[in-house]
Amino acid sequence: MTSRLRLPDAITLATSGLRARRIRTALSALGVAIAVAAVVAVLGIAESAKADLVSRLGEEGNLLTVASAQSINGREVPLPITAEPMIRRIPPVQTVTAVATLADVGVRRSTAVPAVQTGGMNVLAAQVSLPETVSARMLLGHYLDATADDYPVTVLGYEAARILGIGSLDASTQVLVGDRYFTVAGVLAPVTVAPEIDVAALISFPQAEQLFGRTGGPSRIYLRADPDQVAAVASVLTATTVPQGQEDVQVRRPSDLLVARIAAKNTFVGLFLGLGAIALLIAGVGIANIMVISVLERRAEIGLRRALGARRRHVAAQFLLESTLLAAIGGLLGTGLGVAATAVAARLGGNPVVVPAQGLAAGLIAALLIGALAGLYPAARAARLSPVEALRAL
What we know:
This protein is of the alpha+beta class. The protein has 13 helices and 13 strands. It has helices at residues 7-20, 22-60, 83-88, 130-134, 158-164, 195-198, 205-212, 230-241, 255-297, 299-307, 312-349, 357-384, 387-391, and strands at residues 63-68, 71-72, 75-76, 93-101, 107-108, 122-126, 138-141, 153-156, 174-177, 180-188, 200-204, 220-225, 249-252. The strands form 2 sheets. Strands 1, 4, 5, 6, 7, 8, 9, 10, 11, 12 and 13 form an 11-stranded mixed sheet that branches. It starts with 6 loop residues before the first helix and ends with a helix.
């Protein structure tokens, strides 16, 4: 009579072997779970952050900046006074705003802080149209309004507020701009495409002229163009800004920074996936180790099964399936942990939760593959045991 091992019977044998050694099974599965969770979380967190960047890329793709390419002792050279109105006349241009750097004017919390300790912050004269043009939103308070033209009022960039230790606002919240106290009207959320705004205190142009004697053209101009005409607008900005061609002008597309950040994230994803693969390989070695020990401990069981008619391939299938099931348990657990880690990280970072299906599949397939490979040698060793030799363990 031919001996056969049906798949349901093989699964029953494999699961009974795992249940008989629950602590060992749990620890081995945990090693696989941690490695798979790392792989899934890396892919998920990267995709969540990338989704946010891609969303911003679509929103900021038509934003351009114009600034002077020249500098004197590290200071920006102002653009011509006519630059902003001339750019505004370009037909595809939708919105324009300008800022001007106030040289030698610092920002401090109070007079108790030395004037030389600027913390990397600067002061910018800004227009009311700035938030609309650069898609800035208020974190606290409100932006500069008509009142700011006549009174010392400032709006702080996100990093500037953090450096100054301002986390809430009331009527008495003030900072020292130059040698004058300004009431803080609001705090901006981070402006990804214009990081210079994050470390600045913004005041109105009239106050910059009245209190600090700031005259001349702007330091930088931000503009949004028709999305289909961005390249065409960029090609004429230099000639429009400086018609005489006597100065160098830099025209930039801030969304290029987002593209660079996406590329950088892809690089780090590859690195962390490599580390996850190493962790999974180590977990596979652990499974192979405990399976070899299991074969040695269960020689009597193997001998008895062989004596009752089990063939070599049946014994090999039992241990190979046992190793694969062990890895599958770890893979499923790790997938769940990876999804949970992705959700937590995305929420904390303010990004949409994106878990790529290929990441889940990759984690499970990798776990199954590692489990099968780890079980090959123990299964072959179990199959080679002769019934007589194995029964000696009884």
